[in-house]
Amino acid sequence: MTAEMPPADGDFRPHRVAVLALDGLIPFELGIPHRVFGRLADARGRPLYEVVTCSVRPPGPVETAADFAVDVAHGPEALAAADTVIVPASFELGPVFEEGRLTPELASALARVRPGTRFASICVGVYVLAAAGLLDGRPATTHWAHADHFQELFPEVRVDADVLFIDDGDVLTSAGVAAGIDLCLHLVRRDHGTAVANDVARRMVVPPHRDGGQAQYIHRPLPEPQVATTTAARAWALGRLHEPLQLRDLAEREAMSVRTFTRRFREEVGVSPGQWLTAQRVELARQLLESTDLSVDQVARDAGFGTAQSMRQHLQQALGVTPTAYRRTFRSGAAAGAG
């Protein structure tokens, strides 16, 4: 992933997001992009995003999976003006879900999208992106309950059912329901930085970044009540990210062997302790680069990477940018507020 540079003041315009409403859509997921992007503004009060809902047909009602329809004010022409197109989940995808092919109506609508437009899907909305050929040879995710069917229908897609979302540059996919919130917050973070995304999350009363992946939500037998968890060790580690933490340090906090702690941690969080620690340090480094004037060397030490070179490697791997480029991008952008 690469951070997007904010436009020069004279070229300012909101980033246009088109949300494609298909028959059988899930109302909750349709509303996620509007709630995350809809009220974001910069320090001068200018909207950072313009969000519109559109249909594959002329303006009019679109049936939902609930007991009401949605009156959509825009037709497929809105897709031609979009910078980002988001496809929420629908329970009535017909041949898209059953045969992996677009209907003529849907194909015609998507043909209006300009080259270079960013695509994102929520839950089974990924079927639309795959049927359109946007995911051939690329990684993608969807709700864990549909992952096997999706993989069988689209064998050329590299399906990962263990994550909440996947950012593959110009195409992003998310798992089920609330993972759509994670994805949209990630887009805000990618476009405007951690501080802006965190502010949106606070106002929505959701975590700005959830640990782990879908593995923690797949049905499994409940643990015995007396079985210990790794929660205290994670809380302890978050207060000591600047220190050279070892796996045995975390295991000792929970009075477990390293082997037991590692297994329990992965069961609860969905990733290994080392992966989790690195992600937390990357997040802390982002916050320090955005909100302080500390040198890159000091940020690296405070975030627990030790050296600027180590931090540079981890940020390059996680974000696709160097620490200096990241700071330049988001310190030069205006702070945003959300409602």
Question: Can you walk through the features of this model?
Answer:
With 339 residues, the protein is α/β, with parallel strands linked by helices. The chain has 14 helices and twelve strands. The protein has helices at 27-37, 95-99, 104-110, 126-131, 147-153, 179-192, 194-204, 231-238, 247-253, 258-269, 273-291, 296-302, 308-319, 323-332; strands at residues 15-20, 41-42, 49-54, 60-63, 69-72, 84-87, 118-121, 139-140, 158-159, 165-167, 171-174, 336-337. Strands 3-1-6-7-11-10 form a six-stranded mixed beta sheet. A two-stranded antiparallel sheet has the order 2-12. Helix 5 links the parallel strand 8 and strand 9. Helix 1 runs parallel beside helix 6, helix 9 crosses helix 10 and helix 11 (273-291) packs across helix 14 (323-332). It starts with 14 loop residues before the first strand and ends with a strand. Mean pLDDT is 88; it is low at 1-8, 220-226 and 333-339.
Measured by DSSP, the beta-strand proportion falls in 5-15%
Shape, principal axes of CA atoms: globular
Any idea what the radius of gyration is? 21 Å
Number of helices: 14
Total DSSP E strands: 12
Straight-line N-to-C gap = 27 Å
Task: Encode the helix/strand succession as letters.
Answer: EHEEEEEHHEHEHEEEHHHHHHHHHE
Strand order of the largest sheet: 3-1-6-7-11-10
Structural class: alpha/beta
